[in-house]
Design a protein that fits this description.
Blueprint lengths: L8 E4 L3 H12 L5 E4 L10 H4 L9 E4 L2 E4 L1 H11 L10 H29 L9 H23 L11 H6 L17 H11 L2 H4 L5
Parallel strand pairs: 1-2
Antiparallel strand pairs: 1-3, 3-4
Length: 208
Amino acid sequence: MRSEHRLPKLYYCETLNPRKACAAARFLQADVDFVRVDLASGEQRSAEFLALNPNGKVPVLQDDAGTLWEANAIMCRLSDAVAADFWPHDHRQIDVLRWLSWDASHFTLHGATLWFEILIKPLFGGKPDNAVIEDAKTSFRHHGRVLDDHLAANSVAVGKTLTVADFALAAALPYAAAAEIPLAEFRHIQKWYGRLEELDAWQNPFPA
């Protein structure tokens, strides 16, 4: 008897890191089964979900190769699964890794802090910490200048086409206005991000 083919499952919710994984799946036209995890009800802390990711966080990808957590790694596996160049396997790969590391430690770190303090905390009755907000804005401006200078001479993060680095760098930017992320101060970042915004996969990453 032939075994039934099962689609890879991409566990997500409508937050920053799952957003880029879902956007990558749509951009790559990867055939996945989107599975929403209800964070508000604590579904991520269930024994069943913790068996998939002991960190209790989304996104998680479950496919024939096993179970994988961390959004950047998931984007890379999805690219490999469809034999795309989104996660390059040539001389560009080291540079992509550089930007992924820098982004996680600096650029999106500060953007995500503003997103959390200004948009998420109040949803759960918390009060935004003004000192944290001002520090995140200062840090975002400092590292934003680094990226803006890079994009003054480059249309994308690495090479000539979009890679996982672009989606990672852009993770917090859909919420820039609402989260008071000072994106408007960086002309070249705005121009680069505007091109991402033209992608339906980026505009509408989540299932309806």
